[in-house]
Protein 1
Amino acid sequence: MAHALGLDIGSGYSKAVICENGVLHSFAVLPSGGDYKGAARRVTDMALQGANLSFNDIVRTVATGYGSSMVDFADHFATDIACHAAGIHHLFPLVRTVIDVGAQFSKAIRVDEAGRATYFLLNEKCAGGSGKFLQIVARILHITIDDIGPLSLTATKPVEFTTACAVFAESEAVSRIAEGALPADILAGVHKAMASKIVNLVTRVGLMPDCAVTGGGAKDAGLVKAIEAELASPVTVADEPQITAALGAALIGAEQAATGKR
Amino acid sequence: MAEDKKPRSLATQAAAKIAKFVRGNMSATLKAKEEGKKVAYAYINDGQDEIMRAMDIVPAWGESFAGVCAAKRDAEKYLQKAEADNFSRSLCTYATCTIGFDMWREELNGQTPPDAPWGGMARPDMIIGSAQQLCDPRFKWPQATQHYLQDVPVFVGNMYYPPWDPKRDHHEQEAIYVKYAKAELLELVRFCEKHTGKKMDWDRLAGLVDLTEKTWNLFIDTYELRKAIPTPMDTGDAMNTMVPITFNLATQDAYDYYKGLYDELIQKNEKKQGVIENEKYRLLWGAGLPSWFALGDFQYFNDKGAVFPAEVTYRNAEKLERLDLPATNDPLERIAWRWVRFWTHWYDKARKRPGSSPKVERIIEYIEDYKCDGVVFHSAFSCRSWHAGIIHQAEVLRKIYGDIPILIMEGDIVDISSYNEVDTHNRIDAFIETVDAYKAKRS
């Protein structure tokens, strides 16, 4: 059995996927913290444990993500754009547009019929359209990141944010709380502001169906709903959207192992 | 304290000579003051070079000084100085860097601030600005500078050209714009005469106009040698070799420089000596000023097998025969026609392709002439007058020209706080993958 390990060491979370002959075998996710190197080792151990394997069983390791350069046991480094494209193509071969909402960046990626990225855009160097924005708001609302989606879906009167800047939006959210706005309505407003920025990227790369949302942001049902509303088009979300790039990395590793390509 | 950064390795010997050229331009301003010559703050690509040179005015280029500060990663002290007087970081950082330097020098009663990169620039005797249509700091920068240098006279001319309108034949308007530009140039001559106490030598000016046009022709002949596969020189070098045509136009030195570069590229082409050994991808630098503090990124592209045989940036010249200029014995009228026709000579071509625009047409011309596989834009946040159009250009290009890979990099020209090397390199890596996929699909 040929096992390939894919690691996506993101600024927010580290993800590991083990594929066996091109099929997802096990995965693990944990917060990256400040120690990318340690996070890569820990998340690898977790995935290996889940698969009941040892590192010696891994024929190839491919790393991607913001902290990938710290993975000193990787055989190969791939870009997260290529990994998202490969991962989503494996899961949904008809997808031609990928929206990745990561902690640091959001990206819009066009993918061809072979699962190759053909064009991509990232949000500006600003947290306004990225998962970081959600983390900031979750902190001031004293809720966990996992609570954001379900809570936001109960909103009845979404708050209109006058800014799409995460820093200013933080103070604006505090002001709205002081005015009595409900957390659900604040979250729905945040989702709307984020979706607007994200869909702007999608428009610029050119929306081509099917469209999928990946990354940690895709686990937020409220954000996905806001993106669909802004796009006026349905989107596809995988069962575990956060591991798409790690899956792509593992698949790239598996292919490299199979073809002997380095 | 400036942070030293290993400079990019250059492909041509000519590019390696540029530091001396730039340093010479800056020290010429200091020497001019000792010799009693007049020094003017000047701004690039405004059609005023021949007039300044004919009047023996020594130009002090703020854009060059700020670029040097940025390349040495030593601009922050000037940016902070300007910021302390309420100049926003989102303003042109060429302007704010130079204004910060000016403020500091005034505080020192005209003495050059300590540790100024390459000795700094001399205090000017006049400021000669020109408002291009596209660059609002061309108006505001001289005005803001005069706020600190209150005894220094300012001239800001207006060098306009017909705006692009696909429904209108700009040739009908050209003569009006030429007349206006000529009048502005004549005003500049009067301003220079007043502040130098000398009369214009019109024959000398005509000779310098001829020299400029010879240099333009030679410059384009030289750059077109880069069409060769492998290309003998790429944009990493061109960000150096642009200095003579940008800052030393209407001088014999500029002409001689390009003669040397021409000979060098001919030799390289004969030996099939490229920028890199295995040229895999040919890219066009589609628009945008570079991050002067991160020119090493061109090396990063090179390391990935990518070269830039052409760039729009700083290619502010054209073969004169392609501009089809009307005959005239009046040097000012000649400059004015050259000015208007340079900016409008892609209009006819753009009109023939529905949905196109002159800037995009120029990009398409270079993609095809230089056989490029992808286009890179650099959006520098503080240069909004140019960079505001980059996203639009990229979108129009994809719409009318197909799915050629495009990368839009983000940063600034001077402000290093805008730059993230890891992020930039990640984007380049991903872009190279898309170029690879594009090439595979086409073959």
Protein 2
Amino acid sequence: MQVPAPFTYERATSVEHAIALLGQLGPEARVVAGGHSLIPMMKLRLARPEALVDINDLGGELSQIRVDADMLVIGALARHADLLASAVAGEHFKIFHDAEKVIADPVVRNFGTVGGSLCQADPAEDLSAVFAAVDGVAVLRGPDGVRQVRVRELHVGPYETVLEPDELMLELRVPIRPGGGSAYEKVERRVGDYPVAAAGAAVWLDGDTVREVGIGLTAVGAEHFAAPEAEAALRGQPATEESFQAAGRVAAEHCNPSADQRGPVDYKRHLAAELTTRALRRAAARARGQEA
Amino acid sequence: MEVTINLNGTPETHDVEPRLLLVHFIREKAGLRGTHWGCDTSNCGTCVVWLDGKPVKSCTVLAAMADGREVRTVEGLEQGGQLDPVQQGFMECHGLQCGFCTPGMLMTARALLDRNPDPSEPEIREAISGQLCRCTGYENIVRSVRWAAEKEATEAEEVTA
């Protein structure tokens, strides 16, 4: 039987209450939302928080998915299933639906949350690369107020983020810009497993030229889950198969996969190139309105 | 800490450690052994119960997180001495062999039919994709769910007629 180490449990009744509790309980306290990344690690004693602050009662405040002016806003407590079912998210960024279809399994998606996935900062977690591709911003709140951090700057290492111990992620904001398309491509061994590798892309076209591009990489040791060198190589280039393949090669060169039971380094590097190319191809087709 | 869970419509209150998992609250504290405890790693899905109306893997939820909430287990499917159509379907179509995955499969199937009364085979397979049948009896599980869908459609027609 897997049993977490002992901890104290508190349930937050408001955002202010959650932040106050985190402040009182100190740096060994953790927020629990869906718990589907954290609780398995606690059961294996890889994580041993002294206290948990349960934020599941803050759903009304923190779980909305909506458009606010030119921003898609996704509440940190939105469940994976909510994001997959969100018409407004899919209308602006199909990458969210692509990714959510292959995150864990349908039952896990009922309870696991968007913010929880990002805050757990598992190197094989999909949404970090997705938000890196669309250049989303995380809204964090602490005792001294609210600050915004690009998701590309959220992670400082495996399972580590820039969040202070008494900061809570409130929502993710993604700028909606015209002329864009996005996609996510993942290879996994079976349903519900972590990816062997995955790539996300968002492109904005000016005619047949790539005006702007974001590329995210999952599980291949890419710093901040992003591929800035590949983006630089593609920006301003013609939106062609050759350009996408060239960008894929650059992405593969600059990532740093590790060999494990999911595959050797050269296979993962091959996937980084191939999946980046496929994601760019599909994102561009969607930007042109050629593919659903 | 004291935890009260509305379990199949009946409040169950127990003094538990915060680290107690929901699956163990259901099985050991409330004594409802219909929910099975399988892989313990949120892979196999035999521990699926409904939490506030949605299927979740109860080995990955703390009992404390379910405090004050509603949980429905496989024991809560039967209504007034009548098996739920998904339970009948599993009987009719040989949807279980060893029966280990069955409670989770039934809870997921019931949730699927509530959301989508006429699911296609791929939709059924997708819905149960986070659950493992160690007998590999998926064909019959899919047939069982279809049987239940058809039975409910027929009954609905009879009511309308």
